[in-house]
Amino acid sequence: VASDGDVVRIMEPVVGTLQHEECWVLYLASSGRVLDKVRISQGGVQSTVVDCRLIIKRALELLAVQLVLVHNHPSGSASPSDADCELTERVAEAAKLFEIRLLDHVIIARGEHFSFRGHNLLK
Q1: Could you tell me what percent of the chain has a pLDDT over 90?
Q2: What is the 3-class SS of the chain, one letter each residue?
Q3: Mean pLDDT, the chain, integer
Q4: Burial annotation 95-120 (CB, 10 A radius, 16+ → b, else e)
Q5: d(Cα 123, Cα 115) in Å, to the nearest integer?
Q6: What does the alpha-carbon distance between residue 99 and residue 123 come to, in Å, rounded to a whole number?
Q7: Which is it for the CA torsion 18, 5, 1, 46, positive or negative?
Q8: pTM of the prediction?
């Protein structure tokens, strides 16, 4: 994984047409190679609950050094909500404690996507 386009190519077939929200994590080696992709949560039409502990637990098991959050918006708009921004911040801070980098958070909606890194919203 080298770009948000790579993330979309991998994950759009998985979450792009769902009628409910799902949050996935791509766990990456330092080279960007995908070590695992895991569905962290499945929710309703408008939201899903994500537990940061589960994200970090799997990263440590895999010895991942980078991760990418991915979730879908069944509404069709890829714009992030306040909750999406808060989740991104929480996961980035939790990962940082273990020297794991949140590389991006990509929201996939019908035919469009939003990259937090692409919009300079990740440090």
Answers
A1: 87
A2: CCCHHHHHHHHHHHHCCCCCCEEEEEEECCCCCEEEEEEEEECCCCCCCCCHHHHHHHHHHHCCCEEEEEEECCCCCCCCCHHHHHHHHHHHHHHHCCCCEEEEEEEEECCEEEECCCCCCCC
A3: 94
A4: beeeebbbbbbbbbbeeebbbbbeee
A5: 13
A6: 14
A7: negative
A8: 0.93
User: CA–CA distance from 36 to each of 27, 32, 43, 53 (Å)?
Assistant: 5, 11, 21, 17
CA proximity to 21, closest of 101, 119, 107: 107
The pair of structure tokens assigned to 34 is 């995908």
Which amino acid, 111?
Answer: G
Q: Give yes or no for residue 62 having a pLDDT over 90.
A: yes
